[in-house]
Prior knowledge:
The chain has helices at 50-63, 74-80, 82-95, 130-151, 159-162, 168-177, and strands at 11-17, 26-32, 66-72, 103-107, 119-122. The mean pLDDT is 93. The longest helix is centred in the last third of the chain and has 22 residues, at 130-151. It contains 6 helices and 5 strands, in the order ββαβααββααα. It has a 5-stranded mixed beta sheet with strand order 3-2-1-4-5. The chain has a domain at 11-147: Ribonuclease H-like superfamily/Ribonuclease H (Nucleotidyltransferase, domain 5, 2-Layer Sandwich), CATH 3.30.420.10. By secondary structure, the chain is of the alpha/beta class. α1 (50-63) crosses α4 and α2 (74-80) packs across α3. It is an enzyme of class 3 (hydrolase). Keywords: Cytoplasm, Endonuclease, Hydrolase, Manganese, Metal-binding, Nuclease. Endonuclease that specifically degrades the RNA of RNA-DNA hybrids. Its EC number is 3.1.26.4. It catalyses: Endonucleolytic cleavage to 5'-phosphomonoester.
Amino acid sequence: MLRSHYKYANEAGTDEAGRGCLAGPVTAGAIILPEGFQNIVLNDSKQLTESKRDALRPLLEEEAVSFAVCHVFETEIDSINILNASILAMHRALDNLKEVPSYILVDGNRFKPYPSIEHQCVIKGDGKYMSIAAASVLAKTYRDEFMAKIHDEFPMYNWKKNKGYPTKEHREAIKKYGLTKYHRKSFRQLPEQFTLDI
């Protein structure tokens, strides 16, 4: 059972999606849920079906005290690395909240202090706290929506299905067609036995 709060009202949960992808942005969600918020379906977004995530998103947006989502794109990922880009996406999502949170719960074990607000990193936090789980659902659904949109530009990579993750099919398409403007050039796009001219 997910806990509604760590120790404060007006806590923000934050999480990211797309960190391990070869293409597309890393996307973060931040959300402040009202005190006493409960939802029996809500869980870590990876544990939910796509249809459950899609059904939860409007409900979370409607119920939230405040929420925000931010994409950090490939060129920025390549210039500052994926860990820094993930943290930057979370900071930017927090920047865009309409309410200032009293405390920040962060999924994972790495974060840079956010100006003047205390935070706590929680490993597997999206399976422990409602606010982090809700942030994970927002990050995942907004990112999936973006990947479905750019799929139409480059259908041969099948981003609608693989969302930019390093599936066999995605790697085969890279081998055949090369890289697009949406690929992260700093990532090892193909296993060592393949070479790619970029």
